[in-house]
Design goal:
Blueprint lengths: L1 H16 L42 H19 L2 E3 L5 E3 L9 H26 L3 H15 L5 E5 L5 E5 L2
Parallel strand pairs: 1-3
Antiparallel strand pairs: 1-2, 3-4
Helix pairs in contact: 2-3, 3-4
Length: 166
């Protein structure tokens, strides 16, 4: 038993004699943290009711275009709006149930402003004649029209006529 007690004494001395010292203190220089953030918030639940309700900013043209595309698509499907030879939207003859002429005209005006802004931007960037850019746009726009939509095209004798997309 003495041998065990004698062997424990050096172990206890080492254990309690060599205790590390922990010092808690604030640093002399403050801690500096640089954070650069870019937060884009998009609320899919609510969109402005009219194209004019979009707030101005760097993406306002894109936002305006998104809004007017969905509205114009609905009007194209109803047959109250068509795509003319300049690639712009035009009000078609309305039926007796179409009582929202003011909304249709306002939406067409906003959509045409958006199209013109985009075409002008392409003209400035690509340095191509605006009539060629407009012709390319018209060709793509006609292809993307939903079936049943009205658009203006040349007939076999070269005259511009309105026809419905099949």
């Amino acid at each position: 038993m003495n041998k065990i007690a004698l062997s424990l004494i050096p172990c206890l001395a080492l254990l309690f004699g060599c205790a590390p010292t922990v010092k808690l203190a604030a640093p002399e220089k403050p801690i500096k943290v640089d954070i650069n953030m870019n937060v884009n918030v998009r609320n899919a639940g609510s969109a402005p009711e009219t194209p004019d309700a979009v707030e101005p900013g760097p993406t306002s043209v894109q936002n305006k275009h998104r809004i007017t595309v969905s509205e114009i698509s609905g009007l194209l499907s109803r047959g109250v709006v068509g795509l003319n030879r300049q690639g712009l939207y035009e009000t078609r003859p309305l039926g007796p149930r179409d009582t929202d002429l003011e909304y249709i005209e306002k939406t067409v005006k906003a959509a045409n402003a958006s199209v013109n802004e985009q075409l002008d931007a392409l003209h400035a960037i690509n340095n191509r004649p605006l009539d060629l850019i407009r012709a390319d746009y018209l060709e793509r726009a006609v292809k993307s029209l939903p079936s049943g939509s009205w658009y203006e095209s040349r007939n076999s004798s070269g005259q511009w006529v309105w026809q419905q997309k099949k």
